[in-house]
Write a structure and sequence with these properties.
Elements: E1 14-18, E2 21-24, H1 32-45, E3 62-67, E4 70-74, E5 77-81, H2 96-108, E6 118-124, E7 130-133, E8 145-151, E9 154-158, E10 168-172, E11 177-180, E12 189-191, E13 206-212
Antiparallel strand pairs: 1-2, 2-11, 3-6, 4-5, 6-13, 7-12, 8-11, 8-13, 9-10, 9-12
The structure holds succinic acid (SIN) and fe (ii) ion (FE2).
Residues 133, 135, 189 line the site of fe (ii) ion (FE2).
């Protein structure tokens, strides 16, 4: 399916928003309970923490990871580590419900056989945001990024390969999934400050899982 084309075989819930980039609206809706339960076990072992940018700024988003490697940032830079620097232990294993969801979403977006080895978990409380950035610390740029949104809604910004390129705005709700890869793999993206509210299942926060092939 080409970007922008549309026919009756394509449910309106699956939309291409850039070359190689797909918005799978509601794709995770029937799995949010299983995913939330698995998530609770992961963050019990590797609690959310506010990391610092290499420039010393505290991030408004709280983070954790699961998988064989986890993304971290501190004064030494952005990178993937095999161990949680807070506990010194290996990151929690990727729950089956996570791996299965990521693989299915990638396949639905035209990336069969995606095997994520890392999942960065972001927690946004009202006001938290993610400034425009590229996901470029992964070794494998042939695999897409799969992003699953839970809880409070948010406005996602998706730009081009240069920071100053114009951005489009996508409204993300509980159960929505984005997949970007191929020509869009290194596109700048970010999240506007999350507006205050209370989600029926997750309370006063937005959670986002991004699956990557990092190692
Ligand atoms: C990210 O780019 O790592 C987070 C994206 C999101 O929270 O939707
Ligand atoms: Fe990102």
């Amino acid at each position: 399916m080409q970007q922008g084309s549309f026919d009756f075989a394509t449910p309106p819930s699956q939309q291409s928003f850039a070359p190689g980039a797909w918005f799978l609206r509601g794709f995770a809706c029937d799995q949010t309970e299983a995913v939330s339960m698995a998530l609770a076990a992961v963050v019990a072992a590797a609690p959310f923490r506010h990391m610092h940018t290499p420039g010393g700024l505290r991030m408004s988003v709280a983070m954790s990871n699961c998988g064989t490697v986890g993304w971290v940032t501190d004064e030494r830079g952005y990178r993937y580590l095999r161990h949680d620097p807070v506990s010194g232990a290996a990151w929690p294993a990727m729950p089956f419900a996570f791996a299965q969801l990521a693989e299915r979403a990638a396949a639905a977006a035209g990336y069969p056989q995606f095997v994520a080895d890392a999942c960065l978990i972001n927690r946004y409380e009202p006001g938290a945001r993610m400034t425009l950035h590229q996901d470029r610390n992964e070794r494998d740029m042939t695999s897409p990024i799969v992003s699953v949104s839970l809880g409070l809604p948010a406005t996602f910004l998706f730009g081009g390969l240069a920071r100053t390129d114009p951005t489009q705005r996508l409204s993300l709700a509980h159960g929505d999934v984005l997949v970007w890869g191929g020509p869009s793999r290194l596109c700048f993206h970010g999240v506007l400050p999350v507006r205050d509210g209370t989600h029926a299942r997750l309370g006063r926060c937005r959670l986002n899982l991004t699956f990557r092939k990092a190692g």
